[in-house]
Amino acid sequence: MVDSSILDNRNLKEISSMGNFHVLEHQRDLSVSDISALNQYFAAKMNVRKRQLLLDLDNNSYIVQAGAMQWMSGGVTMSSNVKGVGDFLGKMVGGAVTKESAVKPLYQGSGRMMLEPTYRYIILVDVSQWGTIVLDDGLFLACDGNMQQKVVARKNISSAVLGGEGLFNLSLTGKGIAALESYVPYDELIEVVLDNDVMKIDGNMAIAWSGSLAFTVEKSGKSLLGSAVSGEGFVNVYRGSGRILLAPTASERKANPTDSSSAKGNSQSKMSKASKAFGALSDVLDALN
């Protein structure tokens, strides 16, 4: 459980936890004006609320999305998590193709750290249950420091061109917890477990899947004519044994997402964010020299 002193604020509630990961939710947005009060009132009623991830470091290490830290207390240190020039260039390329931050800082120590608020839903997963978990673009928020991060590419042309899941994805391997930023709440997600089976999905509904699954794009019917008549065309096909996390209602949210940066803007401006990112990059380059 979270230290009760943090939850002295009656507007802040812990809604889920796993290991040293704690998801906190602001029940209402109280910093409103007479103009925005009505919108914020109904937003809270419809579960549109700010959420934050609190990490109890407990002498462990955690990898966090760049620029996500809001505050930290106790004996917490941060490193660039870059092992050399080659590693830095590889991470720059990986960040460019997966839409994730190129360099994800590593925090370690005995204190605690709070991440910036977001309107997205923070989902906690036990990566050991997945073996290797492959993430949709922009889903990563934080994970245990012992996790191996790798950029995986599509294995065939059909999945790369027609799958709608992107050409490259970030994967996590290891024992520990990962925090994901989802467009939809956990209650709307469906986890499917395949045991040497096949699953066909119409569209990019899968937001995470096991790295052990073979992903292809195929005709929905036995022929092109049959696929055209059915109105389904091509479908994403997952084969093998593993897990798939589906977001069946995500398409509408992705088209009209609640910008998480609007919540972060309460603590600092976009210009400050850019300056912070530039400063972090300069620190990395200085460390490599």
Description:
- This protein has helices at residues 37-45, 85-98, 157-162, 224-230, 250-255, 260-264, 270-288, and strands spanning 12-18, 21-26, 51-56, 60-64, 69-73, 76-79, 106-109, 112-115, 121-126, 132-135, 140-144, 148-153, 168-173, 177-182, 190-201, 206-210, 214-219, 234-246.
- With 289 residues, the chain is an alpha+beta fold.
- The longest helix has 19 residues, at 270-288.
- Helices cover 23% and strands 38% of the residues.
- The protein is globular, with a radius of gyration of 20 Å.
- It is built from 7 helices and 18 strands.
CA distance, first residue to last residue:
43 Å
Class from helix and strand fractions: alpha+beta
Rg: 20 Å
Gross morphology is: globular
Which consecutive residue ranges, at least 5 long each, have pLDDT under 50?
84-98, 224-231, 257-278
Order of helices and strands: EEHEEEEHEEEEEEHEEEEEHEHHH
Q: Report the count of strand segments.
A: 18
Kindly estimate the percentage of residues that lie in beta strands according to DSSP: 35-45%
Oligomeric composition of the shown chains: single chain
Give the fraction of residues assigned to helices.
Answer: 10-25%
Q: Quick check: average pLDDT?
A: 78
Number of helices: 7
